[in-house]
Write a structure and sequence with these properties.
Elements (H helix, E strand, L loop, with lengths): L14 E8 L6 H9 L17 E7 L3 E7 L9 H12 L6 E6 L7 H10 L6 E5 L10 H9 L6 E4 L11 H7 L18 H16 L9 E9 L6 E9 L2 H8 L4 H18 L3 E9 L7 H6 L8
Parallel strand pairs: 1-3, 1-4, 4-5, 5-6, 8-9
Antiparallel strand pairs: 2-3, 7-8
Length: 311
């Protein structure tokens, strides 16, 4: 029960609910979610399939309530078991939430990927808010035409053009979302920002820095596991041992780089961001292992933290 300072029940006056962000890979779902909650939880990259798990973050506004955001993997045509797992996670959340935020890029053309998502949306009764993202990349006078293109296809609760990267027009989203949430008490304490364990966020930061540093053929086949994460009794330094998993011996050589230069670059970039998140000095040691075709192994997919049954 939520009470005010006089002990009165406030749950009748606040709204709380779950909101999923869906869309094709690389439309800006993680960027938008990070912007709305005011800090980085989900990793971002220009490469597709950056988000692999469903990531839960919490937005709390005093007097109004709480929005629990679910950032999902991009919906795409799966090429392996990991890809199918990712699509299943994304599509299943449509049935479990109070509001759907569907992100698309500004265009007059609705491609096969968007039409696949439209078919999924037509099977649910959940309010859908269409987000036309990346408006900073197009002429403002063309945006109305993009809105009209999508309005003809589906009865959206709202249509919002914005730029998640630049924070343009994002400030109106929370109020629009609250409009469609049910009344009820908050699910989390007001200080909660995410349900993700620190180890998982650390692993994802290392994977993000790998995505940024490596060329096209390697990143899709990368996973990161945290072998150890322990704070020293004296000095307050956190020692982290992590392994970067790849699928081929040739990829291992690329990740390590000449004289270990690439791995050192990934580690240095990751350590900077991990230290900022943990507010501690970090000693990060990275290793590289080959697990051939792990993305098609049910055992290894689960072993690396992608457990569909737990969603």
């Amino acid at each position: 029960m939520v009470k005010d300072r006089d002990g009165e029940d406030m749950s009748q006056n606040i709204k709380s609910g779950f909101v999923t962000l869906i869309g094709r890979p690389n439309v800006g779902k993680s960027t938008l979610m990070n912007h709305l909650i005011g800090q980085k939880i989900a990793i971002t990259s220009k490469k597709p399939q950056t988000t692999r798990n469903r990531i839960q973050t919490v937005y709390t506004e005093e007097g109004k309530g709480q929005i629990v955001f679910l950032d999902t993997p991009g919906i795409h045509k799966a090429k392996n078991k990991l890809g199918q797992y990712m699509v299943n996670v994304a599509e299943r959340t449509l049935r479990d939430v109070d509001v759907v935020l569907w992100l698309v890029e500004p265009s007059n053309f609705i491609g096969a990927g968007e039409r696949h998502i439209l078919e999924k949306l037509r099977k649910i009764n959940t309010p859908v808010i269409l987000i036309i993202n990346k408006t900073d990349t197009v002429k403002k006078e063309d945006i109305l035409a993009y809105i009209d293109t999508y309005r003809k296809e589906y009865d959206f609760a709202e249509i919002v053009p914005l730029s998640a990267l630049r924070g343009e027009n994002t400030e109106i989203l929370p109020d629009l979302i609250f409009k469609y949430l049910p009344y009820g008490p908050m699910f989390y304490d007001e200080d909660t920002v995410t349900d993700q364990p620190e180890r998982q966020i650390v692993a994802e930061i290392i994977r993000e820095k790998s995505l940024h540093a490596l060329n096209e053929e390697v990143p899709h086949g990368i996973a990161v596991t945290i072998e150890q994460m322990k704070e020293r009794k004296k000095g307050g330094i956190i020692d982290i041992e992590a392994t970067v998993i790849c699928e081929k011996e040739s990829h291992k050589g690329i990740i390590i780089g000449k004289g270990g230069a690439m791995l050192k670059k990934i580690g240095s970039n990751a350590r900077f961001e991990i230290e900022r998140m943990l507010e501690h000095q970090v000693n990060l040691n990275l290793w590289v292992k080959v697990k051939k075709d792990w993305r098609d192994s049910d055992f290894l997919i689960k072993n690396f933290g992608y457990r569909e049954s737990e969603e």
